[in-house]
Amino acid sequence: MKLRHFITLVTLASLAAIIYGFTLDETQEALANTYIGSGTVGLFLIAMPLFLYKESKHRDFKDYMLTDENVRKMQGKPPRKPKEDS
Question: Is the pLDDT of residue 71 over 90?
Fold first, then answer.
């Protein structure tokens, strides 16, 4: 099973648990809260980190950091020349 399919399965199961928790009667409030809480945990502590890991694999994080060089590129300015020590 690919990671993409596992993430989709966890997401759908979590959403189903949340929806089921909201559809339970008021007499089963503790059980409803358990389903809603477990669905939320599934989404935010399992599915989201796995998705972020999958999507950020093989990326160079220096391209996304605001260094002086990257800011100058965004502004269309030429890169600074290194200072020469004399």
Answer: no
Residue whose structure tokens are 């993409």: 4
Among 63-67, 74-78, 82-86, the range scoring the smallest mean pLDDT is 82-86
- How high is the pLDDT of residue 69? 82
Convert the chain into a string of H (helix), E (strand) and C (coil). Answer: CCHHHHHHHHHHHHHHHHHHHHHCCHHHHHHHHHHHHHHHHHHHHHHHHHHHHHHHCCCCHHHHCCCHHHHHHHHCCCCCCCCCCC
Phi, psi for 62 (deg, rounded to 5) = -65, -25
Distance CA 32, CA 3 (A): 29
Q: What is the largest CA-CA distance in the chain?
A: 82
Structure tokens at 29: 């409030």
Q: 6 to each of 10, 26, 42, how far by Cα in Å?
A: 6, 33, 12
